[in-house]
Amino acid sequence: MKKSRNTRQRAVILDVLKNTESSHPTAETIYREARKVLPNISLGTVYRNLNFLRGQGLVREIRSNNEASSRFEGERPPHAHFHCTCCQTVHDIPLPDCVRNLQWEGDTPICSVNSLELHIVGACSQCVAVQS
Amino acid sequence: MKKSRNTRQRAVILDVLKNTESSHPTAETIYREARKVLPNISLGTVYRNLNFLRGQGLVREIRSNNEASSRFEGERPPHAHFHCTCCQTVHDIPLPDCVRNLQWEGDTPICSVNSLELHIVGACSQCVAVQS
DNA sequence: GTAATTGCAAAAGATTTGCCCCATT
DNA sequence: AATGGGGCAAATCTTTTGCAATTAC
């Protein structure tokens, strides 16, 4: 495996991801947060590190269908994502057992499964409460 | 609802989507296909129509985590997607009943569900066969 | 005839990359 | 000291948009 260094920038980015567990920040948001600690960090560095960390399996990318930019999250136990179309928030939700245990033996092209993503799109209770 | 016209461009785009059911083309691919029929169609028109048709519920956008561009599909009965990391193909696969019937009554922020996406990532049988 | 839609090209956004310098090892 | 990684800015890529001309109705 390739040699890598523990730079202050990388540590800060991981830290931002750890401390915003439920907000699934974009690169831009991570950049803004990181700048509070390292005012000179550049957006390019944020992207380079996110890509590197994703390669290491320490960061996951999340894309939803109507958003231009990717969101990122630190690696955590398997879970699903709930996207509220009203407040644009992405929430972590438990991954149902039946999904975790899915078998694909029927008439599918699936040979081996690496990962699985379940995205629920709808309205969150908070938004519905505010509306009424 | 807003007035809309049946342009040749729109019909061709829908046709391309219908005739490439299992390939989930990108806008660029749709553009190239459409040019075979309408050599002057522009990429902007393809995007504009895809957005319009998505608004009408006739087209769906699919984004996967490591691809820069969106893929599109014509509206079809609910199904899940299988992404082969080897050949980059996206296959339609049946949506398991247990997923279709998921209930969210526990400790989640979910109030109402509009739609649901299940993405499986792995290797398809064809790729595995070729490798060995 | 009117207004939606097109083609074209420029703009906008997100992400990547080249280059030279700095900092970790 | 060697070299991985950073900062900056330019480049790239995808998608959107303004505008004048066209076309469906």
Task: Explain the overall architecture.
- The structure is a homodimer of 132-residue chains.
- With 132 residues, chain A is an alpha+beta fold.
- Chain A folds into two domains: 1-75, Winged helix-like DNA-binding domain superfamily/Winged helix DNA-binding domain (Arc Repressor Mutant, subunit A, Orthogonal Bundle); 77-132, Dna Ligase, domain 1 (2-Layer Sandwich).
- Chain A has five helices and five strands, in the order αααββββαβα.
- The first copy, chain A, has a three-stranded mixed β-sheet.
- In chain A, a hairpin with a 5-residue loop joins strand 3 and strand 4 (90-93).
- The first copy, chain A, starts with 7 loop residues before the first helix and ends with a helix.
- In chain A, 23% of the residues are buried.
- The interface between A and B is large, with 41 and 40 residues.
- The structure holds a DNA duplex (25 and 25 nucleotides).
Q: How far apart, in Å, are the first and last alpha carbons of chain A?
A: 55 Å
* Percent range of helical residues of chain A: 25-40%
The tally of beta strands of chain A, per DSSP, is 5
Tell me, briefly, the overall form of chain A.
flat
Largest sheet of chain A: 3 strands, mixed
Task: Give the CATH topology of the largest domain in chain A.
Answer: Arc Repressor Mutant, subunit A
CATH architecture of the largest domain in chain A: Orthogonal Bundle
Q: Count of DSSP helices of chain A?
A: 5
What is the oligomeric state here?
Answer: homodimer
Task: Quickly give the structural class of chain A.
Answer: alpha+beta
Please give the CATH class of the largest domain in chain A: Mainly Alpha
Percentage of residues in DSSP E strands of chain A: 15-25%
